[in-house]
Design goal:
Helix content: 25-40%
Largest sheet: 8 strands, mixed
Radius of gyration: 21 Å
Number of helices: 7
Distance between the termini: 75 Å
Length: 281
């Protein structure tokens, strides 16, 4: 019996090593050859593409969204329907907007389709284009110079500029990972990191106004005072940084796991974003 158990554990260990080696080898081959990922294949063959000529004439909003999970595809799947005039720009390609939007991890829904619909129906926009640079679970230090999120934001902005779709608005929804439940980032450190992020963005010619959401609520804690104070301190008309919505006001009843939004939570978040944007140019 003991010998059989040893043999079983030995065999299981060998299988794990083979699988790990195979995955590593596949990753290395993919990196070397440029083989497409599953997301690449889905975008290439399933996601409906669009051309610049498909964008209706008239008033167009181009929105560059950055932040962590609640700025991306972390709500339930298939919450909102596609809407004519809504587009998603990613890696040099224009798509008909639908969830999950490329540019964010995870496979659920975000608030952006609903926000776009509100902007078109209430404010007379003929089209709203979203470009996402979003990653779940990322503290603000990932946006400072040389870190991945800053590179992604600048690449997204430059891609829009190259397509003659310069961003008209930048939406910032990040902060949960800096709350006391996780990093516990001090207010002054948060503000310093944000300004370190914004400088190179402006230097890259991306001069759209930035709207900063108050976002710090997690399953482990309620709203975080230090993060909220930092986010409020960033508002400065001279820097073209304005107040976004208070996402923290949406409590646990609007979050399916205490942190990420339910379908109704996404609707309310979209409405809060709309109210913030409608009160500004």
């Amino acid at each position: 019996m003991l010998r059989s158990l040893r043999f079983w554990f030995f065999g299981a260990g060998i299988c794990v090593l083979i699988l790990a080696a195979g995955w590593t080898f596949h990753s290395q081959i993919r990196a070397f050859t440029g083989l497409p990922t599953m997301e690449d294949l889905r975008l290439r063959f399933i996601r409906p593409r669009a051309a610049l000529t498909d964008i209706p004439g008239g008033r167009v909003m181009v929105v560059l969204v950055t932040g962590q999970s609640n700025a991306g595809n972390y709500g339930p799947p298939n919450v909102f329907q596609e809407h004519a005039g809504l587009f998603n720009f990613y890696a040099g390609t224009l798509y008909r907007a639908q969830d999950p939007m490329p540019g964010s991890d995870n496979a659920g829904s975000g608030p952006w389709l609903e926000l776009g619909r509100l902007l078109m129906e209430r404010d007379g926009y003929s089209s709203v284009i979203f470009a996402l640079a979003v990653q779940g679970g990322t503290p603000i230090r990932e946006w400072i110079p040389g870190r991945p999120m800053q590179r992604r934001v600048i690449e997204a902005g430059r891609g829009l500029q190259a397509a003659h779709l310069p961003p008209t608005h930048i939406l910032w929804q990040q902060g949960e990972s800096d709350s006391r439940a996780f990093d516990g980032t001090a207010s002054e450190d948060y503000a310093k990191a944000f300004h370190a992020f914004l400088g190179p963005v402006r230097a890259a010619g991306i001069d759209a106004p930035v709207y900063v959401a108050l976002a710090s609520r997690t399953v482990k804690e309620g709203p975080d005072a230090a993060v909220r104070q930092a986010q409020q301190s960033l508002v400065n008309a001279g820097d073209k940084v304005f107040a976004g919505p208070d996402a923290d006001q949406l409590g646990p009843e609007f979050r399916h796991d205490g942190t990420h939004f339910t379908a109704e939570g996404l609707r309310r978040l979209a409405a809060l974003w709309y109210e913030s944007l409608a009160s500004r140019p």
